[in-house]
Design goal:
The complex is a heterodimer of chains A (287) and B (405).
Chain A lengths: L3 E9 L3 E10 L5 E10 L5 H15 L4 H4 E8 L9 E2 L2 H12 L5 E5 L4 E6 L5 E6 L8 H10 L7 H6 L12 H14 L3 H23 L5 E4 L6 H13 L7 E2 L7 H27 L1
Parallel strand pairs in A: 1-4, 4-5, 6-9, 9-10
Antiparallel strand pairs in A: 1-2, 2-3, 6-7, 7-8
Helix pairs in contact in A: 3-9, 7-8
Chain B lengths: L6 H14 L7 E4 L5 H6 L3 E3 L1 H10 L3 H10 L8 H12 L3 H6 L9 E5 L5 H13 L3 E4 L10 H22 L5 H23 L10 H7 L1 H5 L4 H19 L10 E6 L7 H10 L2 E6 H4 L11 H10 L7 H14 L4 E7 L12 H9 L3 E6 L9 H21 L1
Parallel strand pairs in B: 1-2, 1-3, 3-4, 5-6, 5-7, 7-8
Helix pairs in contact in B: 3-5, 4-5, 8-15, 9-12, 16-17
Classes of the chains: A alpha/beta (287), B alpha/beta (405).
Chain lengths: 287, 405
């Protein structure tokens, strides 16, 4: 008898669809990340992107949706995913995914395409409080994408390039439109690409650190979401926190940070699957 | 689908009201929405409220087309978008009053009256039109941001009200008639108390009127207070809603959370927001905005003192302690789970999220708060995507706290 249960988690965000396949081993009680897939939505219908992404993962792993997947859990804007078994609130999924990727975290920061959200959790991953950035694009991953496109960079390069900065140029405007004007000005002044990118990362890091202090966030702090994969961003957050005399804070990161929501959804899906299964077994016995 | 049946009647009343402004039968006074309408009516004026027009420009999403015209004339795009939309609409001679009510445009004023109990912007706004129409303007400038309203403040306002008499007499051609004034105050009081009862029907767990419905049904209490028409309308509406409560009929049965809306409505997004809350199982059952037209201190036996007091005691004209006390009482009365503050970009005076009140009130009451940024009319200050995410996250968290304790 096969002792492995497969669940899928799909997180539909503002810019990307993130999809994971996870396995649960009944004997050891271990969860494992088996496969993952990120798709940029571009101008497509997110529902179609999600559909294709699910098929790709199933095919790569020789799995059949009806036979092999115990639970397909959606989160974020994923309520439109057709084959989902159930939907989970994104705060609970990011918290759960954050704890999975960075065990021991007491705060999870979801740094996504549209906003940054800091979530305070207890030792079990239960959400205690949260804070989100205000209505401003200059604190979002999409802003970094726009600037990197303007500078002719691929978004994947941004982290490494930021680390090469020697004299970062921080934009003065807190509004994305003004900040973009600042960047144009920096380019014409001859500022180097690493210094511009690092400056942008610092400006976002300043907002993240402000958010964390208004939340009275507890350490260790896990940096998740798409921007959590940007090494330059993590470095900038650590530096800004240190400048603000928050040296005692420990920041945790993980190369799969972008999947925190999808992983959390897959784990919650597995949990709900077991609850439902136990319930139906009990009902069978009772009848 | 839940429908408030009286809505059709309300639409007819509002149509008749707007059309009456152009018949020439009565002289027209312009007045701020929480201004001395009763005194003006006692002189036989039909009263027109430019803020109501501002809301119409917001609700029809035409404000953004006309605001740039006011900006060209030197009015900043960051001041009250009722003001800029109304002035812009006048300058371009474009108004939904034409299409919706068959009017020619802004009704011509014979006199203009304002009360800065709500903000200073109304003064600049109304002076613009007094100059345009070359008509007399009278203003009430009460003490502002009061924790407590004492007789001293009331006396000051009474004195200013009385200074309006000679101007009103001259423009209307009628002598001031105290009995008429008392009668108008009586009708206004009766309508406003009915309106208060209408709002309070939503203290029921299966609430029959939402904040979003309230912003529509408040039309008569804003523009027709002091008339029998308003009194009759709210008598009928109240009977319908009380009946619904008795029969356990509401706009969102089995609501999972109950929300309080603080600040201005986002007029151009009422439907979108109403649907958003409903689809997330949240009933928005009360607001400071709709409660702003409850003047329960009106007393026809003491018309001067009681109207001066009622108009000075309004929520927007109070200090933080008084505001927090009013909000805490409403939270209990309406069984509120969470409060949403609309931080309106161009309505500084009716936004209470800028000086830390949400945090302080949460500490006192334990009711979680969310601040969303937007505007009453100018939707360029409102990000739909970000606001939806923020509201959904807030509602998720409220529910989770309710379930897990």
């Amino acid at each position: 008898m096969n002792n492995t249960v497969y669940t899928m988690g799909i997180d539909v965000g503002g810019s990307y669809v993130k999809n994971v396949l996870m396995s649960y081993d009944k004997d050891s009680g271990n969860h494992q990340l088996v496969d993952k897939q990120t798709e940029k939505i571009r101008k497509r219908d997110p529902k179609d992107v999600a559909h294709d992404s699910i098929d790709m993962i199933l095919e790569r792993n020789n799995l059949n949706y009806d036979k092999d997947i115990a639970y397909l859990a959606s989160t974020g804007e994923g309520e439109m995913v057709e084959r989902k078994t159930g939907h989970f609130y994104s705060m609970t999924t990011h918290a759960r995914g954050g704890v999975f990727l960075t065990p021991g975290a007491r705060t999870v920061v979801d740094m996504g395409g549209l906003y940054v959200r800091a979530i305070k959790i207890d030792e079990r991953g239960k959400v205690l409080d949260y804070k989100m950035t205000g209505q401003c694009a200059s604190g979002s991953g999409q802003f970094i994408e726009n600037i990197s496109r303007y500078l002719g960079l691929a978004v994947e390069e941004v982290g490494d390039i930021s680390m090469q900065a020697d004299n970062p140029e921080v934009p003065s405007g807190i509004c994305a439109v003004l900040a973009e004007t600042d960047v144009i000005n920096m380019v014409s002044k001859g500022a180097s690409t690493p210094n511009i990118i690092k400056g942008i990362n610092i400006s976002i890091a300043q907002r993240v650190v402000k958010l964390l202090s208004s939340l009275k966030a507890e350490s260790p702090i896990s940096l998740m979401g798409g921007m959590g994969m940007n090494k330059g961003m993590i470095q900038a957050i650590e530096e800004v926190a240190s400048e603000n005399k928050k040296n005692e804070i420990q920041f945790l990161s993980h190369p799969d940070a972008i999947y925190s929501g999808a992983i959390g959804a897959a784990l919650w899906g597995g949990y709900r699957y077991h609850i439902l299964k136990e319930k139906s077994e009990k009902e069978l016995v009772a009848s | 689908m839940y429908v408030i049946k009286s809505t059709e009647k309300m639409k007819a009343i509002m149509g008749n009201y707007f059309r009456s402004l152009e018949t020439g039968e009565k002289k027209v006074a312009w007045c701020t929405s929480v201004g001395p309408a009763e005194l003006l009516r006692s002189f036989g004026f039909e009263v027109y409220f430019p803020e109501n027009h501002g809301a119409l420009l917001g609700a029809t999403r035409t404000a953004m087309d006309v605001i740039p015209e006011a900006v060209k004339s030197g009015y900043s795009g960051h001041v009250c978008s009722y003001t800029t939309a109304d002035i812009g609409s006048y300058l371009r001679n474009e108004t939904p009053l034409k299409k919706h009510y068959g009017m020619k445009g802004h009704p011509k004023p014979d006199i203009i009256a304002f009360n800065t109990n709500q903000c200073r912007e109304v003064q600049d706004w109304f002076y613009f039109f007094a100059k345009e129409f070359n008509c007399p303007i009278v203003g009430i400038t009460p003490p502002r941001y009061l924790e407590e309203v004492t007789q001293k403040e009331v006396d000051l306002v009474v004195e200013q009200f009385k200074r309006m008499i000679p101007v009103c007499e001259q423009v209307s051609g009628r002598k001031f008639d105290e009995e008429k004034f008392k009668e108008t105050v009586r009708l206004s009081k009766e309508a406003t108390l009915l309106w208060q009862k209408v709002l309070k029907t939503s203290t029921a767990m299966n609430a029959p009127i939402s904040f979003f419905d309230g912003t529509i049904h408040m039309g008569p209490i804003v523009v027709l207070r002091g008339t029998q028409v308003a009194k009759d309308y709210y008598t009928e509406l109240l009977a319908e809603l009380e009946d619904n409560v008795k029969n356990n009929v509401g706009f969102l049965p089995n609501a999972r959370t109950r929300i309080f809306w603080e600040g201005m409505p986002i007029w151009g997004k009422l439907r979108m927001l109403s649907d958003l809350f409903t689809s997330n199982g949240a009933a928005v059952v009360a607001s400071t905005y709709c409660s702003s037209w409850v003047f329960d201190k009106f007393d026809e036996n003491d018309p001067w003192n009681s109207t001066a007091r009622a108009y000075t005691e309004i929520f927007i004209n109070r200090g933080e302690k008084a505001k927090m006390k009013m909000l805490s009482d409403w939270f209990k009365e309406y069984h509120i789970d969470g409060i949403i503050y609309h931080d309106s970009k161009t309505c500084f005076n009716n936004s209470n999220a800028k000086f830390g009140m949400p945090q302080r009130l949460k500490e006192i009451t334990g009711v979680p708060a969310l601040v969303i940024e937007g505007d009453l009319c100018d939707l360029r200050f409102f990000s739909e995507g970000q606001s939806i995410t923020k509201i959904e996250t807030f509602l998720e968290q409220l529910e989770e706290n309710k379930v897990l304790g």
